[in-house]
Amino acid sequence: MAKLMSSLLITAIAFALINRCETVSIQILQPIRSWGDEVGLIFIPDVNITGEQYNKTARAIQEASELRLWVVLTGDYFFSVPDTQQVEGAVNSAIGQLERAGMNSKTYVGVGHGLGGRNLQSYAQNSNLRAIVLLGSSLPSHISMMDYPIPVLTLCGELDGLMRIPRVAGEYEKLMGAAKDSDFFRGVYRTPVIYIPGTNHALFASGQMPRFILDDDLAASISEEQAHGIIGQHVDSFLTVSFSSSESKVDNALNQLVHAFSQTAGKLQPFLDLKRLDVGDDGRTSLWTILAQEFFADELSDRVNAYNLIIKNPGFFLSIPTITHTDDGVIAGTSALVHYDLKTTWKRWHAVYESPREISMKLVSKESFRLALDSNHTSRLFSKPHDCKSLNRLAFALALTVSSEDAKERYLKRGRPIIFEEDEMLESNLHWASRPLYMKETEAGLVVRSVGMITAASGRMISGRHYCKVISPYRAMEWINVNSLRPFKK
Ligand SMILES: *[C@@H]1O[C@H](CO)[C@@H](O)[C@H](O)[C@H]1NC(C)=O
Ligand SMILES: *[C@@H]1O[C@H](CO)[C@@H](O)[C@H](O)[C@H]1NC(C)=O
Ligand SMILES: *[C@@H]1O[C@H](CO)[C@@H](O)[C@H](O)[C@H]1NC(C)=O
Prior knowledge:
Blueprint: H1 2-18, E1 25-29, E2 38-44, H2 55-64, E3 68-75, H3 84-101, E4 108-113, H4 115-124, E5 129-135, E6 152-157, H5 165-176, H6 181-190, E7 193-196, H7 211-216, H8 224-243, H9 247-278, H10 287-297, E8 304-310, H11 315-318, E9 322-326, E10 329-339, E11 358-364, H12 366-373, H13 388-402, H14 405-414, E12 418-425, H15 429-434, E13 438-441, E14 446-454, E15 465-470, H16 473-481
Parallel strand pairs: 2-3, 2-4, 4-5, 5-6, 6-7, 8-10, 12-14
Antiparallel strand pairs: 1-3, 9-10, 10-11, 11-15, 13-14, 14-15
One 2-acetamido-2-deoxy-beta-D-glucopyranose (NAG) binds at residues 52, 55-56, 59.
């Protein structure tokens, strides 16, 4: 009996799983134009948002476009999570209903928000969809945009606390990485990444947002109507370029895409610049560590040349900074370890920073430079050596400087500050190596305390060392632009 019951139960569960796409609801919004090239937009919601909550976004797109746009809002997913399998079911029944409702073309385009977009892109690679639009969502980082089989429009909000701008900068970098100019241009209209100022994650939809969005999203600085209007224009440009039969309209829309794309470039470039400061393009040099060495050499920096190698452990643990004499000064050989957060908790993937958690650097001490370069011992005239904390302050100042005027103003007005505490000084390489940079979010702000070590310099060839664990400039940038603006959670 028990056996029968359990097999019945399994059958019931299997049945529920197989048929769950049946539960997805479909709502059609009729075109508002009576003629024009027909395109069907099929919306896939984010987790715990209803299909209907996209009706205003959809309407704004219809109004912005001269195409004859049909819209399908899908909803009522199992557990409110639009997984890939249900997305497939939803798109198929949406297409069926569009045909029955009288749509004549087969130009179907998926529009996905957040996780809905994420699962849409995975399904769409091999489907009846001719293009996709990602709202506050992106292709996964291992997929190159150039290789994606159909056109993709990625719309990102400046104040999206989930699909954060630093994450989008990575997407944009993939586009910029295109080898040839012609590929690059093709990328601009085939896979444009467009930044919308003042918009957050919620404004891609409307109405009451679920808990996980309220928890991490930033406050928008434009109204819902404005946001939808801008979204409408960009989606229209993309659809027109891809599907309009009128050459003059395509030309015009292409101009708008290129314009929007170049504005996006200006906004994202500072993020990429700071990212490169942490780890150079070759992946082997930390420019920030070289700058730190020059900064520590201070008055003597004119006669110090520094280079750097990023080394993994145990090599980094064993490495020792070197000092070599040349005709007109010294060369300092430094090492760095760039440490990232683990990206394990998929549930809160949006809480994970793009930037390194810390940079460990092994530098030559100022005292060593003095012994090596100042044979007349005028050292009393030299200032005190800088500490790791001053390097943290420098990273912060740099990040604030390259941030946009709006971002600066926002941060100074309502961002939680970074609080730099005095360095914790340790006495041995072993203790220093095993102690992480202290970094903790509190209600008052982000508390950062470096771990330092200085050894005495003795003799001409033996270098005194100055070790520091410091915040990366890119981390400071992420803090200023995004995380400092989030509501504080314990
Ligand atoms: C969108 O849906 C809401 C909630 O059902 C409804 O009140 C509103 O009128 C709809 N708006 C449009 C533009 O269809
Ligand atoms: C969605 O809503 C359900 C029910 O309210 C809740 O249990 C679940 O945690 C929510 N999911 C997310 C990602 O917020
Ligand atoms: C050291 O002092 C001597 C004599 O005053 C001077 O000629 C020389 O340039 C000084 N060297 C340095 C490195 O300052």
